[in-house]
Amino acid sequence: MHLQLGEASTVVVSSPEVASREEEAAQAVAGLARAAAAARSAPVNLSRLVYEWTSSVTARAAFGGKTGEDQAEFFTIADEILREAAGFSLADVFPSRRWLHRICGIEATLVDIRRRLDRVLDNIISDHRAKRTRGSDDDDGCSTGTAKDLIDVLLKLQEDGQLDFPLVLQDIFVGGTETSSTTVEWAMSELLRDEKTLKKAQSEVRRVFGSTGIVEEARLGELKYLKLVLKEVLRLRPTAPLLLPRQNSERCEIDGYDVPANTRVLINVWAMGRDPKYWVQPDEFIPERFLDSSLDYKGTNYEFIPFGAGRRMCPGMAFGMANVELQLANLLYHFDWELPENEGSFEDLDMSETFGVTVKRKHDLCLIPVSYLPCLAPT
User: Fold this and answer.
1) 57-66, 121-130, 165-174, 283-292: lowest mean pLDDT where?
2) Based on CB atoms within 10 Å of each CB, which residue in 66, 159, 242, 324 is the most buried?
3) Is the pTM of this model over 0.90?
4) H/E stretch holding 155
5) Which is nearest to 271 in space by CA: 238, 244, 245, 295?
6) If residue 367 lies in a helix (H) or strand (E), which one and from where to where?
């Protein structure tokens, strides 16, 4: 896993648990195959499936092994945080009126969530510390008796005084799971509406992986067209259209505008990605616009910064995109997709948005999976 934690160097967690993305993918595919075989006309909620898939991958990379009681509660609390952050409160309109937070009840709710979150994180971290104490430490300060996961590496960074531990965990999970799953959801939606683009992406995936029945993460780099598709999804459907709020510590002037110190600044990457000054047919889904282009989303091209830029850009970009690529490749390789009966055609697919922590589909994406390889379907 690649993470940029503020000024700390990039951390690479090389463990079997991170590699288990493929195992989680196999389990998700098997579940879809069973659904496809059980009832040909029964739709599955792809939005929910992808979210749970992403949560499982992230949990195993961070905690190691299967999800325990504390880890399950952690994700329940993470869902609550997302709901509260996405909701509306009168106190948000008048942030300086602290008494509104108490009257609206939001303060008590957030205090309770934080108390429960701290307790769960303390349990998880204490468990990892105990395992490290029982085992002999290697050069990285992680136990050699167990596979290293994200918490092991974060513990080492905390010991070196480089990390505010609980906040990093909260940010990675609450932000990373929602944004990654939403990106896959929008990618599938856009592809299904564009039959020509869908066929190109699907043909590439099936050509690269052949009839093996396995999408190998090590070969995702061969999916050149799929990478164009994902770039276009990030441009047209950035999951965090205003990024995260920033605050300048000093007064500054930008393009003639005076920005006082301690001003909350929002970066509208949604508008930047649709600016006709930089993009031809900006409202159209055209992956080919990135063909033979050096334009990338890693923070150096400011007309295209879905993950932000500079020292404060998304710390889990590489890990998140690896998950997104693997999930999308599996969905395209293993299945053809149909709409439920009486839902019309894919050209008329409802693309309405709802704004919360991320910009998601207003309605879940419910589809009928049709197994591409007959051997996938259980007998």
Assistant:
1) 165-174
2) 324
3) no
4) helix 150-159
5) 238
6) strand 366-371
Retrieve residue 129's tokens.
């510390």
The residue type of 204 is E
Stretch 59-88: mean pLDDT: 74
**Which DSSP symbol is given to 143?**
B
| Tokens 């999800």, residue located | 67
Triad 187, 323, 336: Cα angle to 5°: 45
What's CA 137's distance to the chain center, in Å? 32
What the block records as the tokens of 238 is 């950035």
From residue 186, how far is each of 76, 79, 176, 235 by CA, in Å? Answer: 24, 20, 16, 11
Q: Which residue has the tokens 């979150």?
A: 117
* Angstrom distance (rounded) from CA 379 to CA 377: 6
Residues belonging to the chain:
379
Cβ contact 184:176 at 8 Å: no
> Which DSSP category does 341 fall into?
T
Residue 270 CA to residue 292 CA, distance in Å, equals 23
Closest CA to 330 of 17, 42, 46: 46
DSSP output for 247-312:
E-SS-EEETTEEE-TT-EE---HHHHTT-TTT-SSTTS--GGGGTT----SSSS-TT--TT--GGG
Question: Does residue 45 surpass a pLDDT of 90?
Answer: yes
pLDDT digits (tens, 9 = 90+) for 159-214: 766 555 555 666 666 667 889 999 999 999 999 999 999 999 999 999 999 988 88
Hey, what amino acid is at 379?
T
CA distance 282 to 241: 15
Q: Which residues contact 39 (CB under 8 A, 6 or more apart)?
A: none
Alpha-carbon distance of 40 to 66, in angstroms, equals: 31
- Alpha-carbon radius of gyration of the chain: 22
Going by C-alpha positions, the residue among 324, 312, 229, 226 that lies closest to residue 267 is 312
Is residue 375 part of an annotated ligand binding site?
A: no
The tokens of 26 are what?
Answer: 């196999």
Reading the block at residue 143, the tokens are 């136990």
CB-CB contact of 91 with 106 (8 Å): yes
Structure tokens, 136: 């002999």
The residue assigned the tokens 């295209």 is 304
